[in-house]
Automatic annotation (TrEMBL):
It comes from the Bacteria. It comes from Campylobacter novaezeelandiae. One of its GO terms (biological process) is bacterial-type flagellum assembly. Keywords: Cell projection, Cilium, Coiled coil, Flagellum. InterPro entries: FlgN-like (IPR007809). This is Flagellar protein FlgN. Residues 39-96 form a coiled coil.
């Protein structure tokens, strides 16, 4: 029973890792049309993960309560290996999500800066219709 729950949780995490890796690659090539479908799929996987994790937790608690020995003695080597895989998958997903967030923040900052330059939103005037003269080069000037 534990093996089934561990396999399910690990499969869901591997799908999340795969989707996040794909999202990172899509951001790098500015392929933004897949964002909404990816977010929907991730939300479904997160819901499935939460449910599977609750079932795994309950199975582990039941197994622990049914024996006077600790979990480390009750679980076989395959279960321990799958728990290690779960830990590694969680760490990998954390790292991928951190990388993904960095790219999202970079794109957001770039687009916010571009909008501020184009429409001068920081001081309340609309640069597109105002008296200021701008050159197209100034829209794409990046300060690093």
């Amino acid at each position: 029973m534990i093996k089934k729950h561990l396999d399910e949780v690990n499969a869901i995490l591997e799908d999340l890792i795969s989707l996040t890796t794909e999202d990172i690659e899509n951001i790098k090539v500015a392929k933004h049309e897949s964002v909404s479908s990816s977010v929907e799929e991730k939300n479904k996987l997160i819901s499935k993960f939460n449910q599977a994790k609750k079932e795994l937790d309950q199975a582990l608690i039941t197994l622990n309560n049914s024996s006077t020995a600790g979990l480390s003695q009750v679980l076989d080597d395959e279960d321990k290996q799958k728990l290690d895989q779960l830990k590694n998958n969680l760490q990998t997903l954390y790292a991928k999500n951190k990388e993904y967030a960095k790219f999202v923040l970079i794109v957001k900052d770039f687009l916010d800066g571009l909008l501020n330059k184009m429409f001068d939103t920081n001081n309340g005037t609309n640069n597109a219709y105002g008296d200021k003269k701008t050159t197209p080069e100034s829209f794409f000037k990046i300060n690093v």
